Amino acid sequence: MDQRLMYRDAFFIDGAWSAPTSADRFGVISPSSEQVVGEVPVATGGDIDTAVAAARAAFDDGPWPRLAPAERGEVLARAAKLLAERAGAIAAVTVDEIGCPVSNPASQTGLVAPVFDYYATLAASYPFERTVVAGARAGLVTNEPVGVVGAIVPWNAPVTLAAWKTAPALAAGCTVVIKPPPEAPLSTFVLAEALRDAGVPPGVVNVVPGGREVGEHLVTHPGVDKIAFTGSTAAGKRIMSLCGEQVKRVSLELGGKSACVLLDDADVATVVPTVVGIGLNRSGQVCAAQTRILVHRSRYAEALEAAGATAAAIPLGDPHDSATVIGPLVAERQRARVEGYIGDATRHGARVVTGGGRPGHLPHGWYVEATILGDVDNTMPVAREEIFGPVLCVIPFDDTDEAVRIANDSPYGLAGGVWSADPRRALAVARRLRAGAVNINADFPPFPLVPFGGFKQSGLGRELGQEGLASFLEPRSIGLPPALLTEAGA
């Protein structure tokens, strides 16, 4: 590991390394060893002020918003190539930051360079302007960049989720202040360096890691025009409230408690191991994880046995070991949270089929065994609240209508899945799920061309796709006199 990537003494502001306003340092603790493996300065509101001032000047007076969209796209295309070359460095840092297994680097880098590449192409083809004519009336409709964007990202996929916000914001002509979380403050600096080397002008992208107080300072800063946030629903509610006080633009990608529906004709022996593997990806620390597995009652016992056997066989251990599939949870508090939900579930009558405790062969690190819970009722907290850990609930249903009702009986609506021997039947059920992304008979990770986001308390707005670009644009209408119609191309 390049120690320069793990020990930083400055923030990235205005295209250069900027000394912090505080001499305090924050230690980055490895979730697997519980040892300090890196350091960053402790950010203050003054550091946010400096970053916002740089982004504000770059937007108000700099070249970036005034470039032709295709010119911005050329820079994003160069950034995509550099990020692909540096994917290994990003993934390596996240192994120590958040305990993401080295065996699964794509979970941290697979949707970074491709997202920049997609928005590089879209910037050149997107209809930023159009002329409309209605009888004697005519108008020029332009899509303008929203301004300075505060991008607040979580610890479970910091560079990926920073890319999902930064790439479309840059394609739109915005400038950005990224606030990575204190648990994973280091890997996003690699993104900033790649963008600088690709030719993004000073001040257009700034990176200042920090905690909740620094985040609130960014949210309420009068120099910020929009907040793009990924994180918990509780934090999202707070941010939405603060933005509402200023009528500030906001997009929110929040929590989930997604359901995977196995219809009565699904091949349980094949499907259950697949959906368990999907649900336990990154130790279940995924907002779109399908943690409720709904199974037809006639196949319930079979599915429960298959789920338990699958979870028990998944290798859990040191994330630096290429054989490891499930690593530690990000922090001691997160392990305590997960253990609390497991204990509460058993008190409410749920049964631990496998797992439920700490692995005895790992004396250090914040590990929880892959856990399958049976006899779960959808009214239990373990089935209604986001756990963010390796815990899956298996719930029976009697018919398709009940399966849809249980799946939709949630305050969340981020993702879902349907499995059936008949894909048309699965599609009919998928259309009934109140969720922003639904897979049929396969894992369906997001890809750049389709929007991602949730219904209900899973968020507001969408990332990726054309919708992701539109969220960083403000439509403007300009009335055209007849003399300008020919010039405007009407």
What's a quick, concise take on this entry?
This protein is an alpha/beta fold. It is about 40% helix and about 20% strand.
Structure report:
This protein has 490 residues and is an alpha/beta fold. The protein folds into two domains: 3-254 and 458-477, Aldehyde Dehydrogenase, Chain A, domain 1, CATH 3.40.605; 259-440, Aldehyde Dehydrogenase, Chain A, domain 2. It is built from 18 helices and 22 strands. A hairpin with a 2-residue loop joins strand 1 and strand 2. Helix 11 (268-279) packs across helix 12 (300-313). The model has no long low-confidence stretch (mean pLDDT 96).
CATH class of the largest domain: Alpha Beta
CATH homologous superfamily descriptor of the largest domain: Aldehyde Dehydrogenase, Chain A, domain 1
Largest sheet: 7 strands, mixed
Radius of gyration: 23 Å
Mean pLDDT across residues:
96
State the total count of DSSP E strands. 22
Number of domains: 2
Can you list the strand order of the major beta sheet? 14-15-16-13-12-18-19
CATH topology of the largest domain: Aldehyde Dehydrogenase, Chain A, domain 1
Instruction: Give the count of helical stretches.
Output: 18
Structural class: alpha/beta
The CATH architecture of the largest domain would be 3-Layer(aba) Sandwich
Strand content: 15-25%
Uncertain residue segments? none
| Secondary structure: helix percent | 25-40%
User: Cα distance, first to last residue?
Assistant: 58 Å
Globular, elongated, flat, extended or rod-shaped: what is the shape?
A: globular
Keywords: Oxidoreductase
Domain Aldehyde dehydrogenase: 17-477
Enzyme class: oxidoreductase
Protein name: aldehyde dehydrogenase (NAD(+))
